[in-house]
Amino acid sequence: AQWKDEEMAELFLEKAKAFLRDNKDKPFFLYYGLHQPHVPRVPNERFVGKSGMGPRGDVILEADWCVSEFLKEMDRLGLTENTLVILTSDNGPVLDDGYKDEAEERVGNHKPAGPYRGWKTTMYEGGTCVPFLLRWPSVVKPGISDALVCQMDLLASLSALVGESYSERTDSQNTLPAFLGLSGKGREELVMEGYYNYAFRQGDWTLIPPYGPNRVYELYNVKDDPGQTKNVADKHPAQLRKMMRRLEQLKRETGKKTDF
């Protein structure tokens, strides 16, 4: 009740820009959390109806504008070349999340998850593979990387970047060379947790154990089959058993109960 929803985006933007101005002459760390396209999906009047995709499309336009204005402020302050900027999301897309915002009706032929299968809360790539863009003009050359990394690796990686240590009792791994585009090698494996289950990535392979109404093991090679259209568990039993054993080992080491 204390907020004017239409003004939230600009308020957060101005706070972030003020932080830049106040700290431009010294090293700084800023976490700028965009609230779009989460609810409340109430864009400022300048964006209402502009996307043709309903309230959700309008707030995505508003988010794009916020990022653009923030980067322009970095340019104006002379911070662009030697500032590391990361833009990422917390999960894959979803259209029907319980709010009547015409997202499904207006999406048309657009595929929010691109070539990937699934949505937010699923264990498929569409739910677990998230946008991740990193910019540092004086250090990082533009390019695309297929390295397997995770957002929690930022702790160890940025700690290494600034010469700090971090607790070894974390799941964070130092994948700084991959983040900086100096290496195509990232993690060897990654456990991904959803609402109901775990998935396990090992190299190009993804294992999804049975959960809910789905009572079969699923195994995909996401390099050969990025859309995860072919469950090859029966064709690669050795790979399946190897990943099942490793996932169980990791869960025992972390005290997680087996869900399947």
Properties at a glance:
single chain; 260 residues; alpha+beta; 4-stranded antiparallel β-sheet; two-stranded antiparallel ribbon; 6 strands; globular
What does this structure look like?
The protein is an alpha+beta fold and 260 residues long. It contains seven helices and six strands. The chain has a four-stranded antiparallel sheet with strand order 3-4-5-6, with helices on one face. The protein has a two-stranded antiparallel ribbon with strand order 1-2. Helix 1 runs parallel beside helix 2 (54-76).
The strand count comes to 6
Structural class: alpha+beta
Helix % is 25-40%
Strand order of the largest sheet: 3-4-5-6
In what range is the share of β-strand residues?
5-15%
Write a short abstract of this structure.
This protein has 7 helices and 6 strands, in the order ααβααβααββββα. The protein has helices at 8-23, 54-76, 103-106, 125-128, 153-161, 176-179, 237-253; strands spanning 85-88, 132-135, 189-193, 198-202, 205-208, 218-221.
Layout: helices, strands, pairs:
Layout: H1 8-23, H2 54-76, E1 85-88, H3 103-106, H4 125-128, E2 132-135, H5 153-161, H6 176-179, E3 189-193, E4 198-202, E5 205-208, E6 218-221, H7 237-253
Helix pairs in contact: 1-2
